[in-house]
Amino acid sequence: MHALTPDQYARLRELAEAWTRTQLRDAKASPVFNPRLAADALCFQQHDDPELGEQLVGALVTPVSLWLVMVPAGEPGEMPATDARHWLAVPSGDYPLETARLDEGRWCRRLVLLDDLSDVASRQAASRLAQQLMERVMAAGEEGEGGA
Fold first, then answer.
1. In total, how many domains does the chain have?
2. Model-level pTM?
């Protein structure tokens, strides 16, 4: 596994910032909004997708949910159709990803793994949760088959 480049880390940070700019206001109205959390792109690693080539796969934690996310490892290019599904094949199983537009030029493929983080006590706890989920998603195991 290769370390991410500074440009890749910057793009992941911009992804979290784009979520904050475009989604935070509406998220605050959600009954599961957790004011102790902020959008953060965590636990990303390189993944060679047979169809799409080099991708980055990780977690996006927000004040309301935790997403499994895949973005191009290089420049993102044109956003795919939002109704297009892509199956992420990793050792634990296959995960159906949908395209989500965050703002002009920022998009990702995602699967909402957890849709209620209201009981997560801190950003550090959210980070640990993301790490545990990504370890399960990226590792071969018997519980696989698309569940995390």
1. 1
2. 0.91
* Nearby residues of 84 by Cβ (< 8 Å), 6 or more positions away: 99
| pLDDT tens across the length of the chain (148 residues) | 578 999 999 999 999 999 999 999 999 999 999 999 999 999 999 999 999 999 999 999 999 999 999 999 998 888 998 888 999 999 999 999 999 999 888 999 999 999 999 999 999 999 999 999 999 999 986 544 444 4
Which residue range forms the structural domain that includes residue 78?
Answer: 6-138
Tell me the CA end-to-end span of the chain in Å, nearest whole number: 22
**Could you give the CA distance from residue 44 to residue 73 in angstroms, rounded to a whole number?**
10
Residue 147 lies in a domain: no
Instruction: Please check whether residue 145 lies inside any domain of the structure.
Output: no
Characterize 28-37 residue by residue with b for buried, 16 or more Cβ atoms within 10 angstroms of its Cβ, and e for exposed: eeeeebbeeb
The amino acid at residue 75 is E
